[in-house]
Amino acid sequence: MFENKVIYQIYPKSFNDTTGNGYGDINGIIEKLDYIQDLGVDYIWLSPCCMSPQKDNGYDISDYVTIDPLFGTNEDYQRLITQAKARGMKIMMDLVLNHTSSEHEWFKKALQKDPKYYDYYIWQDAPNAIESFFGGSAWTYSKEVGKYYLHLFDSSQPDLNWANPAVRKDIYDMINYWIDKGVEGFRLDVIYLIGKEPDKLITGHGPKFIEYLKELNENTFQDKLLTVGECWGTSLEEQYKMCHDKGLSEAFHFNHFLLNTVDGKDKWHTKELDLKELCDCFDTWQNEYTGVEALVTGSHDAPRMISRWLNDTQYRMQSSKLLITLFGLMAGDLYIYQGEEIGMTNAHWHDINKYNDVETLNAYELLKEQGFDEKTIMEKIAFTSRDNARVPMQWNDTSNAGFTTGNPWLDVVDNYTHVNALRDLTNELGVYKYYQKVIKFRKEHYDWIKQKAKFSEDNGVLKMEKPKFTLVANFTDQKQAHDLGSTGDVLFNNYSKVEKQLMPYQVVVVCNK
Ligand code: NOJ
After folding, report:
1. Is residue 80 a contact partner of residue 36, using CB atoms and an 8 Å limit?
2. Is the pTM of this model over 0.85?
3. Which of 26, 200, 209, 410 is at 20 to 30 A from 239, Cα to Cα?
């Protein structure tokens, strides 16, 4: 039911500022709706914009039903829903259900040992070995309570106790409030953590997870809305359990994002992409998985993929086009993160003072404690930090890239003078127009795309063969051989010609004869 959709992710804080306060806002999104619609988008996923102290940029919610004044008002949000709908697009809301902000009323009351709200969170007399995803112990001592509370993320993000039916009921009421307002899709933040059993050291995919998911589904969206769960490193079995029989429509597995990490876990210790591993990953999820894959090339939680996998300077445009051709011609729902469609790159900052992200700042301290020198730490951060993707959208070449007339909350990337939407859109061979072409093709020929594929790698060239077409993509900065032979019609090419050898970062798709 929700297959072959295109979802455009907006990080509201960094999209478009109409007030001059340096933060993007909802009116700024409304102003750009035509730009998004023209790409061929079905859903707009907004990262959280409810009330929040912004310790984790809105993923620390202090009031689930009020829009943060930083971004506008509930009326603005309502207008966004209506105006998007008028253009044939639906709004997908980001639901942060695993934790709240420590400034949420529930947590404040829990700290006062309120008989109802104390049990909304998870307490222990002593910490155990569970670590926070942002580094350090996942337990923080509360003087008021005399116990430790669990926070799988920052200490300002206490985990909710899903074992408590009252928590679940309050959450369902909140989701239904937004459904009544016209929200038509949900992205569920770190949803695989809600079934945790911390006393047994179980965090992800806990024993009651699927039961909770079903109850959530039945009491709220009931399979009628597009829902996507956020998970990391999921197995086929875990994914299947989550995404069928009254669970979610689909889930991010992010297995391909983890290929750059040495042990598949610690994101700060990276290695070069191994194309063979990438092919295996695609093979598993495209051919063995029976559900719908959530195809994702970027998000606010990852550095830009063209900077990690390909080339974001000399071959920036070719690299952007290569990525969208590859992912755009795979089966599933396609997620695009703001800025990809104009070939935005990593910020590559080597000065820690430029960074804002709580995870990055924690990692900086931890890496120092682990004995890494400043230069090495900053190289790691410049490659991996989430702020690489969170920088302001580059609209034009005026100051602050046209994002704000004030001081941006996070610096813009220096290359905005030549990497920006205005310039890209005026170029017939620009990235945006290429994205449009891929999306249009995808919508028209999904029956071709849906077919199983064979993936292989040879000398830095990835090949995807489907019954109707063949794709070859050169992941290197050297010319490489290809075996397309005397080919059929060329469907896509990010260069003007197909020569005997593929050019650096060239992608070619031909119809099979
Ligand atoms: C995943 C979100 O995408 C990320 O930005 C956030 O920091 C964590 N969940 C905690 O909510």
Report:
1. no
2. yes
3. 200
